[in-house]
Amino acid sequence: MTPFTRRRRGWRISTQVLVLLLGILFVFAGVDGYLSLRDESQELDRDAGTNSLTIARMVAADPVVAQGLSASDPARVIDPIAETFRRTTGATFVVVADRRGVRYSHPDPALIGTSLLNDPGENPDAVLTGGTYIGVQHGSMGRSVRAKAPIRDATGQVIGLVSVGTRVQDVHRNLWSRLVQSFLPPLLALVLAVIGALLVARRIKRQTYGLEPAEITAMLEQREAMLHSTREGLITLDLEERVTLVNDEAERLLGIDRAVALGELLADLVPAGRVREVLAGRVSGRDEIILVGDHILVVNHMPVEVRGRPVGAVVTLRDRTELDELLRELNDTRSLADALRAQEHEFANRLHVIGGLIELGRYQDAVDFIDRTSLVHQQLASRVVEGVGDPILSALLLGKAAVASERGIELTVSTTGTLHDELDGVEGLVTVLGNLIDNALESAHAGGRVQVTIVVRDAELEFRVHDSGPGIDESLSQEIFRHGYTTKAARAADRRRGLGLALVSREVHRRGGRIEVRNDGGALFTVVTPLRYTSTTAQDRS
Question: How far apart are CA 290 and CA 321, in angstroms?
């Protein structure tokens, strides 16, 4: 089952991202709200405590209050003053007590004359020693924010205390209005964050083409398996010609290390020349052929666009080394078959002539005709066999002679020195000499001539192939070996610029030899390679 048909389970990745972002935002908003609530509550308590202390000091500083504590009926003097302060300031209570804690003022008249020491947690010792107090306590009026200040007589002695308080619910009455004002910026930020989270989730969904993590993982695994198991080499390049992907086959064909190549410029991995030009797409055309080491590769460079915007290119490589070798063998077989067919027709014609001469009784003329027609072939075969001891090269030369004869081209072979059998790497020599003779036959055309010279001296073997064709452009004397196949126009202008000469050049340099070409009444190719035998015995015979 493919990633596209697999049943989706759970939340989409875009939904997961959205929920995660919203969860984080709401957690931060909740923490921020709690901290803001706590800070606002503490600030209101501090303000209420400070105001209560101010009121308590004002009451304690009133001389009438201090004198009223020593009156015969302190409550009748003090309570009206305390109630006036309470109503004026909006406090919940203003309580005046002596050193014993007996109340002489209170909003609840029933508590006047009672001791505040009866309230839980009440301890006026700190105030009676001359200090002040601000805090939240639970008293007769409920839980309140209260402040206490000492009352002093004319001599400065503490004779009582004033306790002023405001119920907590009254203090926090404006808390929510203040919180709403302080929450407006965070709430606006939260709304913007939610919108941003929705946009991020939408962007993720668009960038992943609606695929889920499991589907993306499956696609990646399939992609990796496909790239590294295919028999075609694959390279991807970005717009700066940096390598972004190399599969196993491309690594093998180009001889590069994938770990090193990734992220590198193509120019840093491939030397200047036709190979780099084709890989970079600077050579137009499809199925361009290049030579890389021992491989003959068919290359296609395809630009890639995503949403109408160029992002790079994909380069495919197909190895046609074995196929090309088979094609060359097939062509050689066809050429030999054509030559044999031509010889068959020629031999049949000669038999007809000989038969006619015999019927006419001209036996000596028949003998002379046989001698003349076979002399040239006997001389060529004898010269090749005597000068070229290797049977494979001898067969190659005789086969090419038959092809030349069929095309009406005069092919001559001359040897200097003796080339014994047991040559090392004779297949490579066949590639070199066979391609040079083929190119010469193509240039000479009917009525032309091709001269093959084989020279053996010291430890060197020299091939010279000279044709009577139009020659070559001297400006291309090196390019024809380096470039292999080029554009069609170039091939039409000079047919030597094909794969055969590139194979010749590769084989010659692989053997440590050299090759050159010049015009001398036609093209003259000269190849010089070290002469090696497969055994010391054959070398001693030379």
Answer: 11
Residue with tokens 């497969």, as numbered in its chain: 534
Out of 30-39, 202-211, 476-485, pick the least confident.
476-485
Buried b (16+ CB within 10 A) or exposed e, 160-192: bbbbbbbbbeebbeeeeebbeebbeeeeeebee
pTM assigned to the model: 0.47
Contact 433, 499 (CB under 8 A): no
Best-predicted range by mean pLDDT (293-297, 343-347, 384-388): 293-297
Long-range CB contact pairs, 41-44, < 8 A, 24+: 41/172, 41/175, 44/171, 44/172, 44/174, 44/175, 44/178
pLDDT tens for 58-117 read: 998 888 988 888 888 888 998 999 999 988 888 888 999 998 889 899 888 888 888 888
Q: If residue 173 lies in a helix (H) or strand (E), which one and from where to where?
A: none
Strand 309-319 and strand 449-457: the pairing is: unpaired
Residue 344: partners with Cβ closer than 8 Å, 6 or more residues away: none
pLDDT digits (tens, 9 = 90+) for 391-426: 777 777 777 877 787 778 888 888 887 776 667 777
Cα 49 from Cα 290, distance rounded (Å): 93
At 219, which amino acid appears? M
Q: State both tokens at 428.
A: 């490579």
Residue 502 near residue 483, CB atoms below 8 Å: yes
Residue 5's identity, in one-letter code, is T
The token duo for 328 is 């060359």
Closest C-alpha among 465, 486, 478 to residue 505: 478
Structure tokens at 366: 């028949």
